[in-house]
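Dear V.,

Thank you for sending over the compound details. I've combined the ligand you provided, magnesium ion, with the protein sequence from our construct and run the structure prediction for the complex. I'm sharing the raw inputs here so there's no ambiguity about protonation or stereochemistry in the SMILES, which I know was a concern on your side last time.
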Amino acid sequence: MSLLALQDLGIGWPDGPRVLDGLTLSVVHGERVGLVGPNGAGKSTLFQTLAATLPARAGQIHFDGAPVQAGRFSPNLAMVFQNADDQLFCPTLAEDVAYGARNLGLPAPEVAARTDQALDACELTGLEDRPVHKLSGGEKRRACIAGALVMRPALMLLDEPSAALDLRQRRNLIDLLRGLPQAMIVASHDMEFLLDLCPRVLLIDDGRLCADGPARDILGDAALMARHGQEVPASLAAR
Ligand SMILES: Nc1ncnc2c1ncn2[C@@H]1O[C@H](COP(=O)(O)OP(=O)(O)OP(=O)(O)O)[C@@H](O)[C@H]1O
Ligand SMILES: [Mg+2]
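Below is the predicted structure of the protein with magnesium ion bound, written out as structure tokens.
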């Protein structure tokens, strides 16, 4: 059974035009799905809608066996925001990372264990007491990812997770995410990153879902990619 199912979903901002229409797709447990599309195509808007921070304009979303309603947040879904400063808000890194676990009502030792593990997975150990505004850009990005991991959700929505990461941390992130059992949808302009991570890709543009299929078929289709302002990643173009 699918973990997430969208049926003829329409999304947009209040008082604005419809951003995407007629989205029908599903994601199963453990699936890793890349989300590609030009600036302004609606990737972040889709994430906000799936995370129930923005109401759907049409159609339906089912997640984890229940309809998604705006304002009713599922503890089984965690989002990593495109802009780290929109996500981090606690005085220290450790408090910020712990927040999601604490919010689940877990006992304190479990919160502490999960927090340590998430900090370690994101190579942030040693920075626990650092005020979040005194972290580097890449450290902030990894702090956001740790804050999602700590919840151990069934679905993670990762909005540009490789942005701001140096090459070593980008590689670490690929290895980390590949090793997780959770389903994830990953929005990115970093096509090589998606190719490494996601067997399946969605391409959105012009207010609709333009392609949904194997990452190599979609990202390797030069005509399709060019039509939507994208480029075939070098590792596929070279073949
Ligand atoms: N908070 C907001 N209020 C109103 N409109 C918004 C808001 N955020 C984004 N938009 C508009 O919604 C549309 C989709 O934007 P969105 O941020 O979802 O694109 P995106 O695919 O994530 O782009 P990018 O690759 O630049 O991150 C754009 O026309 C954008 O201007
Ligand atoms: Mg975006």
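A first observation: The mean pLDDT is 96.

Warm regards,
I. M.
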